[in-house]
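agent: user wants the structure for Peroxiredoxin from Mycolicibacterium chubuense. delegating to structure tool.
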Amino acid sequence: MTSTVESTAPAATMPRIGDPAPSFTAVTTQGEINFPADYAGKWVIFFSHPADFTPVCTSEFITFASMQEEFAAYNTELVGLSVDGLYSHIAWLRTIKDKIAFRGMRDVEVTFPLIEDVSMDIARRYGMIMPGEDSTKAVRAVFVIDPEGVVRAVIYYPLSLGRNFDELLRVIKALQTADHFEVATPADWRPGEPVIVPTAGSCGTAKERMENQDHGVECEDWFFCTKKIPAEEVESAIRRDQRGWEPAG
Ligand code: BEZ
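agent: tool returned. relaying tokens verbatim.
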């Protein structure tokens, strides 16, 4: 018996993990940008928010801006977008700086670019408009884009739910660690915790792993092996040092 899926929702497109990030030119609060070309060689968190002058978005912008240097330490830039216009963006960011405090953060200046997308062209191309949630506002989408301009992670939140910024930073660190050490990271991984070594690709390697666990690799079973990488080794591989960024590799 064949199964059928019926849906009344129009088909939407969105960049998927592994796709090149769709390119565009946009007006932002920091001038025009060519995306993702202007960010070649850097990681980018490209995110949307539903609307200026709304409380959850305000709390998110204060948090993003307060963590901007921390993201920069991992060679990661922030780029925001909403379907509001440039003057709304400017007025909102000034209001945030002049008037709003959140969790002890106050007087916060947002210096990363915030894209105006009144036509919704970019939001639609990135699958940020979800009509079942709201057809006139972007949901809280997050695209993590790597230094080659490839989408590496996609996270969506609904309008009512502010993002978890520890998780966004964890995603950046985990992706960079996976690339640098050629490993995977298990559930809730944080730097310093064991990483997953690639699954054995042959019976010989599987046997060797199970019988000879003395190379710092510990196996629960042939397909589930971990090794420890000290937090300092992870951080020194992925974190920009005082002398400037040295690419991982
Ligand atoms: C907010 O950011 O507070 C918000 C925006 C749109 C809908 C609901 C909440």
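agent: one observation worth passing along. The beta strands are 24-28, 31-35, 43-48, 76-82, 114-116, 140-145, 151-157, 195-196, 217-221, 224-227.
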